Amino acid sequence: MNFDEMTIKEIKKYINKFDDIEKIDNGIIEKLAKDSRKGVQNICEKIKRQKSKREDKIKQWHEQNKHVNLLKEKGYELIAGIDEAGRGPLAGPVVSSAVILDNSNPILGLTDSKKISQSERERLFDIILDEAVDVGIGIVSNTIIDRLNIYQATFVAMKRAVEDLSPSPEFLLIDGNQTIPDFNIEQKAIVSGDLKVNSISAASIIAKVTRDRIMDDLHKSYPSYNFLSNKGYGTQEHIEAIEDVGPCPYHRFSYKIVEKNENK
Which CATH class is domain 76-211? Predict the structure, then answer.
């Protein structure tokens, strides 16, 4: 490819044909680097930045596989990461996810769901569903949260997520500092696990996107609370709506701010 004979627009069009940055080899980069035109230099630098970001993500994938690799050395094969979304809100369910990843098929960019944009969460959500060994989801409603308390309800959601997996996992890696009580699968809790273990990161993303979509649907029936924006969390706008019109059937009535406005 002789870039000297191409306009900058033609070079951009040529580069954009590559669906994977890794397919742009060093030979192409070297030719672009030798072109004195500022526009071509910008294209070259952009490619270098994208490749560097990808290399960082590959390094991150391997770093976040350390816990799983140690378990595999001990003979465990099916290892699930678990995380939840929705402990803190005033409304809606708590959602847990359990994810078993294929370590030979990296999903790059996995991290705590709160650290990435909604569009990136949605993108990774679809990839995880397509490429994971399996994904389990457990949902516990606000009424069960009120009956049990959020602490116990979260464990129920985690159990449901694990039971939703097929095949069943041999070991569980759980975000936080608590393992699931009275559960007959070996497990380990990892503080900030959604930043340290790929499968927990994946579970974090699945749980958050699933719960966000539930709250988006509830917004259609109960627009007064603006669940579309706050996802049921106690924002000032949300609290003022509860105080103004009272709670809806999907609020958590065991929470004080909801309970004291129950009869409005």
Answer: alpha beta
pLDDT digit string, tens, across residues 88-117: 999 999 999 999 999 999 999 999 999 999
Residue type at position 175: D
Q: Report how far apart, in Å, the C-alpha atoms of 174 and of each of 53, 63, 217, 243 are.
A: 28, 17, 28, 37
CB 72, CB 142: distance < 8 Å: no
**Alpha carbon distances (Å) from 264 to 11, 50, 185, 240, 248:** 65, 55, 46, 13, 10
Q: Report the DSSP pairing between strands 134-140 and 186-190.
A: unpaired
Residue 106 C-beta-side C-alpha neighbours within 13 Å: 14
CA distance 27 to 244: 65
CA 173, 178, 184, 187 dihedral sign is: positive
Output the six-digit token pair for 110: 């996995």
Q: Helices in 22-178 by DSSP H: which ranges?
A: 26-34, 38-63, 66-73, 118-131, 142-148, 150-163
